[in-house]
Amino acid sequence: MSKILRGIGVVITLGGLIMNNSVVKEIYLGGRAKLLLATIGQNAGTRYATCNENSLLKRLNAEDQFQPNGASDLTYNFYNIDNPEEYLKGDDAILVERGPYVIKKHTVKYAVEFKASGLTRDVGNNKASIEYNEANLYIPLDINVDVKKTNMTRGSDLKLNWFDGERQNVASYEKKMPNHLSMNNKITNISPIYQSIIGEANDEFSLILSMICTPTQIDNIFAADTKPQCTGAELNDMEKADCSCCMLREMFDQMGESTNATVCETLLDESSQVISDLSLLAYYDGGIQVKQAGDEKYSTSGENFVETLYNQTLIYSPVIQSHTVNDLLFGYPSAYVGKIVPMMYFGHAVKIMKDNGINSRTQAAKELLTGNMDDFLPFKLGDISLYTKKVGSVCLNTCSGATDVAASPLDLMCDGFAPERYESNRIDDVLLGGIDCKPYSATYATIKMCKDIDATMEMDPFDNESEKCICADGSDDYKTSGCCLAAGKYKGLDLTSSGCLFPVDGILGPNYAGRYTATGVKPTVDLGESTEALVSRESEKQSSSKMTQFVCPSKTGPGDDTLFLPELKAFGHYERFDGKQKHTTYQYTGTPRMRQTDSTLDDVEPFSSKVRGTSAQYFRPTGE
User: Fold this and answer.
1) For the chain, which end, N or C, has fewer CB atoms within 10 Å of the first or last residue's CB respectively?
2) What is the distance between the alpha carbons of residues 413 and 441, in angstroms, rounded to a whole number?
3) Which of 343, 299, 512, 541 is nearest to 421 (CA)?
4) Which of the listed ranges 336-345, 387-396, 552-561 does the model predict with the highest average pLDDT?
C-alpha cells in the first residue's frame, strides 16, 4: 500500500528562501510502517539513515561512511576590497567578487572506534555508536591533476592500514577554474588574525604600548603625574610596577619643565622605532599603504611624514592585507604576528622564569618562542621557531638583498612563491606548498644584522649597542638562512623575536595533498601517502574533536529476523510539509533518542513547527 502526498517544500538557507515541489512517499514494507522521504527539485530536503534491513531502504538511504576515495567539489568565492586605502579613511568599501575557485576534496575517516551510546536502552551494547576523525585532502583544480590509487586498506575493525606496492590512477581531474583565475590570485580584505590581536590588546594604541611596556606600566599612564617615568631598563620588566610607560600630552603640558617624561603620542611618530618596525612588518605581510611622504604625521605635531627609520617613504597597515587564494585557504606565515605577539607577552615569560628561579631573558625568550609557555598564555604561539625554520626551507631560494641592512631593509627581500605541493615529496614542503614567501624577508634580514653585530663585537667586545644573536632553537642559522631570534642587539635595537614567523590558519586548514610519487605528464597526488602523513601529524591534535555516529541497535536474538529492540522500531524517519512555512514531525516519545518515527505507532505525538535554517547540504528538522 502506498500513498502520495503533494505539497510545497520550503527550506531556508543562508542565501534566502528556496521553494521546491516535493513528493513524499509513505512506503509500508512487511507489515511494519517504514518511511522513505524523496524530494524533487535542486536536491533540497532531508537525507535519512535507517536501521531497517530491507534491501530497498538500504540501497536508497544507506551511505558508506568509510570509502577512502569519496570526493566532492568545493567552490569558493571571495570578496575583494578594491579601494582599501579609501575604505580605511572612511569611504564605503567597493567589493568585487572573485571566483569561482574550485577545490576537489577527498575525505577519509580514521581513528575509528566502536563505543557505547546513551541513545539506546541496550546498555550492554558496546558497539552502539562509532567515533572517528576525518582526514580531508584538497586538490585545487586550477590545473590538470592525476590522483594515484591509495595504498590504504581498511581492516574488519575499520582501522586504516598502509602498505607498499604499485599504484594505479584513481582519477584524472581536469582543470575546472576559468583561465583567468589561479590559486596565486591576490585577495584584499580585512585581516581576521590582526583583528583578534587588537581584541586581545583592546585597541591599536594599547597594542603599540604593549610592545614597550608591561600592562601595569600602561595602567600607570593615568597616574604619571605621581609616578616616575620608567627608564629604558625598567620598561617591560614585570617587577618594575611603580613607574609609568609614558605621559599623556595634557598632563605633560600641565607639569611643564618639571618632568622629563616621554609624551605617549611621540611613540606614534612615523620615524620612531616602533612605528618603523610595524610598518615594515605590515609590508612583508601584504598590508596596504595608508600614508606617503608629505602626509601629516600621526603624532599631531603638525609636521609632515618624510620616511621611517628604514627609509620607507610609505606607511603600511596590517588592518587590510592582500593574500593569495592558496594562502587564505591553507594557511600562511605572518612576520607581523611572529614579532608582535611574543613582545606582548615577553614580560610575562620573564616573570614566570624568575618565579621558577631562572633569571635569564634569553632563556625566557627561548621558552616563549618554542611553545613551552603556551599553557600560561591566552594566545597560543606554538613552536614558531621551528615553523620559521620550515618556511626557510622552501623560501630561502626566493631571497636576495643588499649588504647594508641599516640603509634599506627593503633591499632584503624574499620575492616569490614556495614550490607547489606537486613538486615535493617532503611533508613539510607540501604543507607550505605555494605560499607567498615575502614574510620570510623579516627572517632573511637577521642574517645581515647578526653578521654586522659579530663584526662590531669582534672589534669592540664591550660595545653597549651590540649583543650577540641567539636563535631560539639553539642553532646558528642566523649565519646562513636567518632564524627566529631569542636574543640580539643591533645598534641599540633589541632583536628579541625578530625574524619569527607565526602560522596563520587557513579556511580549510593544512593541506597534505602532495606528490609523494614520481611525476608524470601531469602533477600527481597520492591519496594514501597523503592521508598517512596527515594521520601521523594530526591525530593527537584532533583527538578531542572526534565525530560520533549512531549505530543501529542489535537484535534481541541471534538469527531472529522478526524480533527487534523497542529502539529499532523508532529508528525510522518521517517528515511532512504542511505549508510554506511549517512542517509536521512525528516524534517518538517513548525513548530519549533524537530520532523520528512513524505516525502509525500508538505512542507518538505529532506537532508542527516553523522551518528553520539548514546546513545547505541537509535540512535537519527542529522543533520550537
Assistant:
1) N
2) 5
3) 512
4) 387-396
- pLDDT of 519 reads 57
pTM of the predicted model, to two decimals? 0.77
CA distances, 171 to each of 108, 244, 344 (Å): 16, 66, 49
Burial class (CB in 10 A: 0-12, 13-18, 19+), 100: middle
DSSP-assigned letter for residue 425 = -
As a dihedral over the C-alpha atoms of residue 479, residue 483, residue 484, residue 489, rounded to 10 degrees, the angle is 20
Integer Cα distance of 409 and 416 in angstroms: 17
SS3 500: coil
Work out whether the CA dihedral 309, 312, 314, 318 comes out positive or negative: negative
Find, among 466, 409, 458, the residue nearest to 438 by Cα: 409
Distance CA 275, CA 479 (A): 27
How far apart, in Å, are the Cα atoms of 160 and each of 62, 462, 517, 541, 544?
Answer: 22, 61, 20, 18, 19
Mean pLDDT, the chain, rounded, equals 75
Find, among 112, 76, 77, 109, the residue nearest to 95 by Cα: 77
Q: Decide: helix, strand or coil at residue 400.
A: strand
The b-or-e profile of 301-331 (16+ CB within 10 A means b, else e) is eeeebeebbbebebbbbbbbbbbbbbbbbbb
Place of cell 606537486: 422
CA distance 234 to 207: 19
Q: What is the pLDDT of residues 126-171, one digit of tens each?
A: 776 778 888 899 999 999 988 887 777 777 777 788 887 777 777 8
Which three cell numbers mark 196?
A: 583578534
- Asked if the model's pLDDT at residue 214 lies above 90, the reply is no
For residue 100, is the peptide bond before it cis, meaning its omega torsion is within 30 degrees of 0?
Answer: yes
Tell which residue, 212, 206, 244, has the closest CA to residue 225: 244
Take residue 560 and report the three cell numbers written for it: 531472529
Contact between 562 and 45 (Cβ < 8 Å): no
Q: Residue 313 pLDDT > 80, yes or no?
A: yes
Q: How far is CA 444 from CA 386, 395, 474, 487, in A?
A: 15, 10, 17, 16
pLDDT tens digits for 23-38? 222 322 222 222 222 2
**Can you tell me the distance from the alpha carbon of 126 to that of 130, in angstroms, rounded to the nearest whole number?**
10
Whole-angstrom Cα distance, residue 613 to residue 610?
A: 10
Task: pLDDT band for 595, please (50, 70, 90 cuts).
Answer: very low
DSSP 271-330: TSHHHHHHHHHHHHTTEEEEEETTSBPTTSSSPBP---TT--SEEEEEEEEEEEHHHHHH
pLDDT at residue number 544: 67
Grid cell digits, residue 271: 620615524
Q: In one letter, which amino acid is 100?
A: P
Instruction: Please tell me the predicted confidence (pLDDT) of residue 503.
Output: 97
Lowest mean pLDDT among 7-21, 251-265, 297-311, 497-511: 7-21
Residue 406 has pLDDT above 90, yes or no: no
* C-alpha distances in Å from residue 104, one per residue of 136, 142, 323, 465: 10, 10, 21, 54
